[in-house]
């Protein structure tokens, strides 16, 4: 492989990784590998539209003063993801502030940030955030252009079904059809090269490795989504009160209340679930559950109220794994790192698809034939042939 071709493949791979990271971030609701800021609260470190490398909290080191974190705010901008710097720490959580702001978020009414609220940390080298200029600007420009296109098409057609995610899928389907027609027109040749071109079109083939890799990627993505998306950190708000109440989250100061924590499994594959207290004042029993397909399991969640009255937040983190490996192996991997079982399960699924694919296909290439008979020819091709 020539250096130029290697460079082209490297750039293409980088573009794919960037696109997949941004799409995954939109689906999961938090940055995956890449994130960006939309406001000027972090200037001059990061200007509006600048991007950064987001390290998930499961892989990041302990949060320290000076780190730039992405957390789920409760009050800032009406709640949602916020990227600010940690400027202090108290018994109740982290104190945060945007570099451009004259006061901390907590001075503005945001409660101290709990570790369970932090979803990522911006990568820093030598104490400096690694910034990707204008990444967010480009992403937002594409999002705005797509949204405007959807709006205009919806106005022209008089239907709201072309708005939102569903409308985007419709537009992509139409665009794919137009690109297919364009490819058919562009591939048609005239003169003595026409027959040669037709012969090449009749007998094309695809590498079996590409087919197997595609199937494995689809399976791994689906399995990872099934484990990651229903899991995560759950928040419970409690009130430490001076009186008794029938509400289980209104607890007399210094006492505790027990709730039922339900874990449903909508899939057909059994799952193993681990429940971890993600803040003080939380206890879970049992902390490990096996949930069969299309069923649910329950655990007892005990929330404790401090001696001081007021409103407090309690967190529980849930980890889910498809039970396709021995339970003891999943337990051992989970104790090493919560992400390790996901990696192992994905590796087993991908390896299984690869072995099955090579066993069925061997080294035979997958052939794609364009039949020239009138019966097998698509109506699009027949129309184009009649027109030309």
From TrEMBL:
Subcellular location as annotated: Membrane
Cellular compartments per GO CC: membrane
Recorded GO MF terms: signal peptidase activity
InterPro entries on file: LexA/Signal_pep-like_sf (IPR036286), Peptidase_S26 (IPR019533), Peptidase_S26B (IPR001733)
Transmembrane stretches, start-end: 167-186, 206-229, 339-361
EC number: 3.4.21.89
Top EC class, one word: hydrolase
Keywords of this entry: Hydrolase, Membrane, Transmembrane, Transmembrane helix
Major localization listed first in the record, in broad terms: membrane
Domain of life: Archaea
Protein's name in the database: Signal peptidase I
Organism: Halospeciosus flavus
């Amino acid at each position: 492989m020539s250096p130029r071709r290697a460079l082209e493949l490297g750039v293409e791979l980088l573009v794919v990784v960037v696109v997949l990271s941004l799409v995954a971030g939109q689906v999961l609701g938090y940055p995956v590998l890449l994130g960006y800021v939309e406001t000027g609260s972090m200037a001059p470190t990061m200007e509006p539209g600048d991007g950064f490398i987001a390290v998930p909290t499961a892989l990041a080191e302990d949060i320290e003063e000076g780190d730039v974190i992405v957390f789920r705010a409760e009050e800032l901008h009406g709640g949602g993801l916020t990227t600010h710097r940690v400027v202090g720490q108290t018994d109740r959580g982290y104190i945060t502030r945007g570099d451009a702001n004259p006061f901390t978020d907590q001075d503005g009414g945001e409660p101290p940030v709990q570790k369970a609220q932090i979803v990522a940390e911006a990568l820093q080298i030598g104490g400096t955030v690694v910034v990707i200029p204008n990444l967010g600007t480009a992403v937002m420009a594409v999002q705005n252009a797509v949204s405007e296109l959807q709006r205009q098409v919806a106005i022209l057609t008089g239907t709201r079904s072309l708005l939102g995610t569903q409308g985007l899928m419709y537009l992509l389907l139409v665009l794919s059809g137009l690109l297919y027609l364009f490819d058919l027109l562009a591939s048609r040749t005239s003169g003595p090269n026409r027959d040669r071109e037709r012969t090449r079109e009749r007998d094309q083939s695809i590498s079996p490795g590409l087919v197997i890799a595609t199937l494995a990627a689809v399976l791994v993505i689906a399995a990872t989504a099934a484990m990651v998306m229903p899991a995560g950190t759950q928040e419970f708000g409690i009130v430490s009160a001076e009186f008794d109440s029938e509400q289980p989250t209104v607890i007399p100061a210094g006492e505790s209340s027990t709730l039922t924590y339900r874990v449903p499994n909508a899939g057909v594959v059994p799952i193993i679930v681990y429940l971890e207290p993600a803040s003080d004042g939380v206890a879970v029993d049992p902390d490990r559950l096996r949930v069969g397909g299309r069923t649910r399991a329950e655990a007892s969640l005990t929330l404790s109220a401090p001696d001081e009255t007021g409103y407090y937040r309690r967190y529980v983190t849930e980890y889910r794994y498809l039970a396709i490996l021995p339970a003891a192996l999943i337990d051992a991997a989970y104790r090493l790192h919560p992400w390790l079982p996901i990696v192992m399960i994905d590796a087993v699924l991908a390896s299984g698809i690869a072995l099955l694919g090579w066993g069925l296909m061997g080294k035979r290439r997958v052939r794609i034939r364009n039949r020239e008979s009138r019966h097998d020819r698509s109506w699009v091709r027949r129309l184009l042939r009649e027109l030309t």
